Amino acid sequence: MIDAHLHLWNLDTFVTGGVRAYSWLGPQHGALYRSFGEDEAREVLDAAGVRGAVLVQADDTLEDTESMLAIAARQPWVLGVVGWIRLDSPDEADAQLYRLAAQSVFRGVRHLTHDDPRDDFLDLPSVRQSLALVADRGLTLDIPDAFPRHLGATVRLARDLPQLTVVLDHLGKPPLADPEALERWRSDFRTLGQQPNAVAKLSGLHVPGVAYSADSLRVLFDEAVDAFGPERLMIGSDWPVSTLGAPYGRTMDVLLELVSSLSAAEQDAVLEETVIRTYGLAVTPLPQD
After folding, report:
1. Which residue, 60, 94, 172, 238, has fewest beta-carbon neighbours within 10 Å?
2. What HEC string does the chain produce?
3. Residue range 203-230: average pLDDT?
């Protein structure tokens, strides 16, 4: 299988002005507050039988993106990179896309919308203009932690820019522990699933107050299969963020237990085919045993 969502970061990285990158990450995050590098990632992937991964940005900086691209140049297991560009400045976005997209492993963009104070970020005309440029280059947009502030805007974006592939990370972060909020998530999630250019990731599903198990997550998995179908779902770990809830192997084992309820062809889609097609990865799908 291919891990569609994996992060790496080096806390010694600094950006313009001498400010440390990954400013969202601090001592309050416990064991997550350290650097996670390519060698450690390769070890956890090998131990779980995962043959490759897509690296996804963890900071709204070019330094983070360039670091991932440098790692991809050294590590054949890195099959794609989802980086960052300044979406609210179309001229800057165009120049950054021109430079970054010259590297074939650069397959999409993402902005930490959940950390952005602008509730209307995805509706901004400047952002829409930049995303049209992203679509023109055959690249994707990942959207993290969309619920509650940005899931409705994600639906509007997918409708308004049908040429853009919109990837919903972590199923939009469904509030599994809050039944009332979960119904609000379900409404927008189902509507997004009706947009043919929308894809969702089975990732980042460690919910505070809810046991991380196939039984607990079954309702979310069934909802995802109904809304998107296996051909528009992909599996991802969200490592190392996921380590706050479970080790890498346990994280993937729970997802594999859920996926095992599908037919063999549907499992092939979720485990490899969707991620390869969505990001245009230069790799051939392997049929499951």
Report:
1. 94
2. CEEEEECCECCCCEECCCEECCCCCCHHHHHHCCCECHHHHHHHHHHHCCCEEEEECCCCCHHHHHHHHHHHHHCCCEEEEEECCCCCCHHHHHHHHHHHCCCCCEEEEECCHHHCCCCCHHHCHHHHHHHHHHHHCCCEEEECCCCCCCHHHHHHHHHHCCCCEEEEHHHHCCCCCCHHHHHHHHHHHHHHHCCCCEEEEECCCCCCCCCCCHHHHHHHHHHHHHHHCHHHEEECCCECHHHHCCCHHHHHHHHHHHHCCCCHHHHHHHHHHHHHHHHCCCCCCCCCC
3. 96
